[in-house]
Amino acid sequence: MSIDSLKSMIPDHAKDLRLNLGSLASDISLTPQQLAGTFISTAIASRNNTVIRAIEAEFSAQLSPEALSAARSAASIMSMNNIYYRFTHMAGETYSKLPARLRMSVIANPGVEKADFELWSLAVSAINGCEMCVTSHERTVREHGLSSEQVQTAVRIAATVFAVSVTIQEQEALS
Question: Which ranges of the chain would DSSP assign to H, the alpha helix?
Fold first, then answer.
């Protein structure tokens, strides 16, 4: 399965998603590694097996084994962190002062450039709706030299991949 086969599964009522998916898959504002890792990490975060398989088939060959592992790690670790930090942000001062006591060593040593891992973490955090994590990772990627346009591209990928996942899930439920 590939991006083209995924696009063919998107019904006409969501044709804008087909167009967005196609244009974002060939976007040049991100490096090839940043682009592929963003697609893979956000597909995993979007939780649709069809979308995960298609996007991994399309992009995994563009990543080294270490970068592929890092993209998968960004999706995994942010799934945990987004829940925890969203809770501490909502529940308030008492919990935000307590140490998390959750292992997250992959953030310190992801196996790829810090900016790339942080960009993938940002995109996953956008999907998961964690304001605290979005703010933190956006600041870090900007400190590492990424432009606002690059950040926007990663979030556009996240938004599109998530919407494609929802649409494919709908089609699978109806068939």
Answer: 3-9, 15-25, 32-46, 49-59, 65-91, 93-96, 105-108, 114-128, 131-143, 148-174
